[in-house]
Amino acid sequence: MGESKSNKKHHVSLRLNILFLAVFLLFSALILRLGLVQIVNGEEYEEELKHVSNQTALIDAPRGIFTDRYGYPVVENSLELSVTYTNPGNQSGGDMIEIAEEVAKFITVDTENLRDRDKREYYYTKLEPQERRALIEDIEYSDEDETTEYQRMIDAISDEMIANYSEEEEQVIAIFSHMLRGTNGSPQRIKQGLTDEEAPKLAEHLDRLPNINIQRDSVREYVYGDTLKNIYGRVGSIQTESVDDYLARGYMRSDLVGNSFLEKQYEDVLRGQKAEVVRTNTREGSGPMEQLIEETPGSRGNDLVLSIDMEYQQILDDIVERQVLQNQGIFVQDASSYAVVMDPKTGDILAMSGFQKERGEEGFSNPTGVFQNAYMPGSVVKGASVLAGLEEGVITPSTVIHDRRLEFSDGTRKASLSTTIGHVALREAMARSSNVYMFEIAMRMADFNYSPRASIFSHTKANEVLDQVKYYFHQFGLGGETGIDLPNEATGFASEGVQESGNLLDFMIGQYDTYTTLQLAQYVSTIANDGVRMRPRLVTEIVEANPNGDGAGAVVRTNTPEVLNTVDMSQSDIAAVQDSFRAVVTNTNGTARGVPNNLNIAAKTGTAQSFLNGRPTNNLSFVGYAPYDDPEIAFAIMTPDTNVPPSGTPGNKISENIAIDLTEAYYDLQDERDGPEQVDSVVEEVDLFEEQ
């Protein structure tokens, strides 16, 4: 019995040993096989894996175009060739420099805006690893310093180290810098606009320039030359302060975007849908490489339909330029004038123009001055001052005020511009531009009864009344943004209080705060439109690009006319001011009596005393609308910094003459149109270093 149990134990142990041996042999075989795969055949499998790859490239699509209100294209896309570099993701900086050196043999790039940072990155890349470490090995950094080692090395490269690069080396640095800015797998422009000599030379050598390609590109073309070019805006590299915002919206660092004015304002709709090219490279073992290319077509961005009448715009530009050049002698220093015409019922900007000529230099178009340059306007704001008095109940349209010289106990003297006018009611006070009428409104609002050489009202009372008057001014857009669909609109100087009590009187006649020409145009448009203030607009519609390339596509969005506010004033009071503006032109002693009656204009003139470099100057302004009984246009003109004429001498009429000419031109176009004058177009030059 005992022997039987012993035999059984022996058999079990034997079977377990055999099982353990079998498992051991299986594991040994598995380990051996894995070792064989990894050690002996690893390179073969790795080689096969290396040759199965996907690469996706996004190709920019053209931006949407601009047309004027009558369908004339004003901004289009011009096709050109660009040289690009596509980083595969595993190319070293040294290899990239070698490619840049080769590319530099065939093209010339702009190095004017090459940064010291670009030179330092190039210098760093050329160093050996031990040379890089040597840059900072003797520098001690605090524990709180979180600067990366790479940045420390870049910062340690001195100005002297990068000071003596030759022009040829700077060409290489510029190309290398553009290559660095790209995103892996997507083309990065090295140069946009290859010349007829560069393109074929480069194309001939592409086979030895890895990851360098020539692609069709587009650049902005301004159909009517420099006309409104500044308003359209610029397209360029993403500006440094905006990089994070654009990346969050799905852009790449290498993208070109609208950086100013309309291009920036409508970037989201102008941007095209990029084409997507997926290249799949496959090679099995040592066999041939096979490439499959799948392309998803892109599409042009949406188009903008502008409120601008290009034919009228060209005429207005000619009017303003001619008047400035003919009157150069009236200016204290630089000569300039600004004008804007809008539809008071819709807010459409029909034309906006500015011309500036510095002494000894060629003149140039400066339409952005319409909404970016602010000046004291003078008496053109008296419509708002009168409405403040009417609404506060201190005057009525029939109130008669004695226009005479005012003198206060501190020696301050105030009067109308040229002479004492005598007793006048509202209509004649506006027609003859009575300053004292406006002073009286302010004094009555301050509960101040004037007597010769009396002490003026207190500083506190002046600020209290100023706030009241500004409440009415702001309803016309004076002192705030007009709301135009453009970035970087100026709002002028808006005082927060008076420095002395008499400044309240100055404010009432446009001699304290400053306003842009566009603000003045919105103000007079609101008067013309019975107190309804419209948002100025430059874009009326956004439409799809027509795939057939003929005519406009489907409307994506309409920028409908927008009422910003209706002034808190009675229609009868607004009508009284409208009538007084008409009297400025029709009265025999009106300040704009030289305006032809057949133009049917209502208007207000203005002359503001200012200073330029210590010299006294006059700002000559003019606002108005036409036809008076059913306004179709409202306009404002500002001609700053003219000489002060001798006492008793009539002032220059340059702004009034511009108003006459632009109104006549508008009427003429209602009778007959020939379309915009054809001129040489201008193609935009894109600076790939811009603001980076």
Could you characterize the architecture of this molecule?
This protein is α+β, with helices and mostly antiparallel strands and 692 residues long. Helix content is 35%, strand content 22%. The chain has 22 helices and 27 strands. Strands 2, 3, 4, 5, 10, 21, 22 and 27 form an eight-stranded mixed β-sheet that branches. The longest helix has 39 residues, at 2-40. The radius of gyration is 37 Å and the shape is elongated. The termini are far apart.
Blueprint (SSEs and pairs):
Elements: H1 2-40, H2 42-50, E1 52-59, E2 66-67, E3 73-86, H3 93-103, H4 116-126, H5 129-134, H6 149-156, H7 167-180, E4 187-192, H8 198-204, E5 212-222, H9 229-232, E6 235-237, H10 243-248, E7 256-258, H11 261-265, H12 267-270, E8 275-282, E9 290-296, E10 303-306, H13 310-326, E11 335-342, E12 349-357, E13 364-365, H14 369-372, E14 374-375, H15 382-392, E15 401-403, E16 406-407, E17 413-414, E18 422-424, H16 426-431, H17 435-445, H18 459-475, H19 503-508, E19 515-516, H20 517-528, E20 532-534, E21 539-543, E22 555-558, E23 563-566, H21 571-586, E24 602-612, E25 615-626, E26 633-642, H22 654-671, E27 682-683
Main location: membrane
Domain Penicillin-binding protein dimerisation: 59-279
Pfam families: PBP_dimer (PF03717), Transpeptidase (PF00905)
